[in-house]
Structures
1.
Amino acid sequence: MKKSNWLLLVLALVLSMFLAACSTGGDSEGSEGSDSEGGEGTAEEGGESTEQVLNLINGDEIPSMDPSMATDTYAFEFLGATMEGLYRLGEGGKPVPGIAKDHTVSDDALTWTFNLRDDAVWSNGDPVTANDFVYAWQRAVDPATGSEYGPYMMGGVIKNATAVNKGEVPVDQLGVTAKDDHTLVVELEKPVPYFESLTTFGTFLPLNQAFVEEQGDAFATDMDKLVYNGPFKFTEWNPGDGDWTLEKNPDYWDAETVKLEKMNFKVVKDTATGINAYETGEVDRAGLSADFVDQYSTHEDYKIQEETTVFWLKFNQVWKDGPSNGALANENIRRAISMAFDKQALAETILNNGSIPATGVVPLNFAPHPETGEDFRKINGDLVTSDVEAAKEAWQKGLEELGVDSLTVEFLGDDSDTAKNMNAYLKNQLETNLEGLTVELKEVPFEQRLDLDTNMTYEIEFAGWGPDYLDPNTWLNLWETGGGNNMMGYSNPEYDALLKKANNELALKPVERFETFLEMEKILLEEDAAVAPVYQRARALLVKPYVKGILKNPFGPDYEYKWAYKGEE
Amino acid sequence: MVRYLLQRFTYMLITLFIIATFSFFLMKLLPGSPLSAENKLSEEQQEIVLEKYGLNDPVPVQYLNYLGGLVQGDLGISFQFDSQPVTDILMKRIGPSAELGAYSLIVGTLLGILLGLVSAIFHNTWIDYLSVFIAVIGKSIPAFVFAGMLQYFIGVKWGVLPVAFWEGFEYTIMPTIALMIFPLATAARFTRTEMLEVLGSDYITTARAKGVNEVGVVFKHGLRNALIPLVTVVGPLAVSLMTGTLVIEQIFAIPGLGEQFVKAVMVLDYPIIMGTTLLFAFLFVVIILVIDLLYGLIDPRIRVTGGEK
């Protein structure tokens, strides 16, 4: 009995060794030899440093490479890398010449004439012509295309864009024409001072008509169904594979400027995974979430990247179809809530990623004064700050006006981990500092929050906005009475009048226009306490020291790679 | 047998039809809109886009259109991946998930059986206690914690295996280990319990009395009988691995089905949600059928077709 037991054990062991061999078969080859750097990044000497290759992470797949259909930041990032519009965002978010060499604007500012370079070609050899822009822009507003950004970006800007999208006039009535192969004439609905920056945006990219029509529905579904006119082109992209490769496009008109030979991207959604891949030297850049910042903030590769997205609390002044207690229609109540939480602590402790407290709706380092160059935020200063004493005072006043001694308010927020921490913090701050206030948290997925926003069935909502072009208007037009993004019942005739003025008679007077926007922000926040700015987002990253020249854009594509290169340590 | 299979096949179709119907209408109840820039568009502009995707039709019409497509094997076009047919996306993503699931199931179950077997044979010795301890640990550590630890120590600290991604055989090892602890622990516990019961039963005593050697007793008479209940567990286990790869896929950055599905629900990509649901349902009913057939092979007392002796 004993003996046979041991025999069995031996058998079992043999079996398990066999199994172990199965599960780790051929382990001794490949994994050691080909693993580049042992986490030190020391393999820099000898040949490696001259190789212009970067390995980067992307947070998700590229949903679309069709400029007319693109809606999200990843789509725009890779459209920006592989294609080129009239202008391209360069250093400091300034538009630099792309397919357009220069342009002239008519005296009434309604007609823009772009002179295109004659040496730009598509990767299939066709020249890039004015007609490529006409075709692409028409396609973007054509109702048959079903584009979301077409009507959004072009409506009210390019003549007849909205009418074409509604099907009221034929597509060829859109205000864009090819005077000849290298002259593009654009007619606007009204003067648009920021139109030059708009032309850098993905929706305004040109399309090779013959190629797109030949591909039909399959256009842009994988790399064989794309044609490029930008600094890079895909040499590997099969949507859903989780990785893709871009290489320098030799046909690009400015190819000599492009130093980078190759970029490998891999999809990584998990922060810890990205950091681990960074540590082993597999990738050259990785994002950090709040819980990793303390560990890495002293790391020599640690970087903070400022963004231009601002978050605030929206106060719904009219609840369309529900019994609101009407509390948020009271200015004092709104003001009290705006000042009653510690923004500094929220940004530094809860977010812990370089984000800064927001004291207005227009972000820091976004809109410089047209003459002095001074920053919009600096000029207008801190319009809403944390001030518990003043908050308590306003709170008591508000309660008296309402004739109550306590209030229950619903707080609508997102349901990600970071958002939940922040919501809990805000709830605690508000309830602690405002006596008699009860905050009920309602945490929902992003799509559902948008739905509740659109239906205006919320009381306080945690919301944010990123810019669509380089102009304060992208923020301040949000609160137009009845506007599609207002959705909180804010209405101030004075504010509306100033907005109209800024976008019509002051369109050609940049200084006065800028000052009008300054004034509008003051009305919105100082006079009306319409929203409560919370923070301006930043991103904490680890970036290898040899990664050079990747620009962070203030809007449109997150990153600009045209001038990127791999430098020495 | 043929008749039985036909009958089962009909039931499968009915099951899938019911699942398709239920998930279609449940999905329509999800709040939100599948548009990605809905907050930037006027009602009118939204209508134009919805019209293009056929989302303006009455729900019953949409349902019939969907079924029509389904019959032709057309699952529609994804909303989030512009112009990509759902079938293409699923086909691309099922590979890594299936591979990882299969490795984990096979290796995990075999190792588990082995562990359980050793446990049972060396009942109440340190070997047994050690095996039980391993099984309990495997059952109780969440996969993502275990995966994170593996990634950090084996990938970053020791640099033995690649940290993440899916680019060849050595990339499959760590995720497989991370995912297989659950089936391993399950199989080990089952095998041990069943084996102890079987080894104590009369026919084993008889076999020993007849002078069958111990190896024969354990493997031929014991294990075969002990494995029957295990088969019931392996089926659902296989399905849960298919779906449960979600966390592992995310941690090891593997382009699989699980994480695709979650993303689709988040952004209301209706066609992908439906396609993935149906794919999982299909796998489930197929696995159930396979298990029923396996039963007949393993246990002569069960026969799918009526009692002809």
2.
Amino acid sequence: MSSASPVRESQRACIVGIGETRYTKRGEQADRGEWALACEAALNATRDAGLDPRNIEGLASYSGDTSLPWLMQHALGIQHLRFASMVWGGGGSGACGSLAHAVAAVESGQAANVLVFRSIVQRPGSRYGEAGGFSEVPQIDLLAPFGMLMPASMMAPSFMRYMHEYGIRTEHLAEVALAFRDNAQRNPRAVMHGLPLSINQYMAARMIAEPLRLYDCCQENDGACALLVTTAERARDLPGKPVRVLSAQQGGNPGWGSATMGSHTMPAAEYGWGNGEQLSNDLYAAAGVSPSEVDFAQIYDHFTPAVLMSLENFGLCGRGEGGDFVAAGKIRRGGSMPLNTAGGLLSEAYIHGLNLVAEAVRQLRGESTSQVPGARVGLVTAGIGSTPISAALLAA
Amino acid sequence: MTMTSYLPDLGPITAPQLPDHFAFWDYCAKRELRFQCCSACGQWRHPPAPVCPHCGSAAVEWKLAPSRAELFSYTVVHHASTPALRGHVPYNIAIVAFPDLVDIRIVSNVLDVPPQELRIGMPLQLVWQEQAPGRVLPLFVRAKATA
């Protein structure tokens, strides 16, 4: 594996700490609030890294995180704040984008230690199945009058077309939901731990927006997750095992608008693909690895069909082969491409995708509850369908 | 002829925010489906935008959409995301393409086709419905077999 980056090896970015709060069902941590959860995750990440939180120099988050930089600077006692960034994009499409900002900051010398974080307390009025949370979508007038008011209905037509074009069946979607729920049974942090899912339960669940049934849709949770990013040189002075960021990128194919606004404009041939192909090419080129070198992946699973589309976009199987790929058991533990080994957003928790990065770090440290033997390179994706989405390649 | 609208008035969330969209809805109120067409290079675009993504010109004409339309994709929504929709599920959301234009589609509803009969590629025909005073929506019905 060769590096395509011009940055000196000693200055390359590493993740040296991960921190999480308890993950719970929506509303269970509302009394604490997002700021408190963000601080708890941040302190857990710095403790994991062996760093004094006062030595954090940069902050990066996404998707309208309410734990603003001055709140975090105040609460964490940050002495020398040199970098703060917020990545655009709804949902978790910026999870790896915020990591990319942290990487850019440490590799350019703008900040020595950057905290990437995301905190969510799901408030009434902002539930994913409720209309009304989209005032920030400036083109909502072209969607809402026709009843397109929630993420499931915004994404469903793209999934419908994808399934139509490639012969993807309900059983393929079910396999994604069941595989991730199975992983959650080994992960005590998972909100769905102790709640196995059967194919009969999956098929009997209510329809949300065809082709999406209840268990095709991610959860609504409270919790926070944080990562500590620094340089390889500084990582040598820290106690833990650093995980290298081979590349972290944002992107989106031409013609793709914000989520379903892409329905209007994206090239017809790409409608059922999601918009990850260009990003994927950039990601692998920057990392100097090929898809065949990826040992496991944490794929953004806000909805099950997005997982199949992402497998294809990121080169883990051929175009249109996502259904057959999962039907062959390849994404399960022991398969050739284990996915979402902590349970993913569907079954661990929906912390807007940042918990997928944390699980990739655990895999590369050899600490996952569904450990992939000899895991060396992991892919993490963040979002699909909106623009920009993001992704990262990490290595032990 | 008065006609019950397919979906009820969903309130302020449906109002246009971008000035570029105002003309689109003004034409709809006159029951004309018009899209922007670049006066400089002749390329159509939608949603409305201040400049042409093909040539960068801000010069624009609003041209009548072609009549040929088809169902590009769809969903049938079973979950009422707002109390106003409770009596209206399941309803369909249609992505309607215009085969004579390149990559221009609109989100709409198909009025007269039961969910199980919706088919990607089915020919559609434009109709108009007033959802709220002043808000006239471009909606679709199944096109006659011999159009």
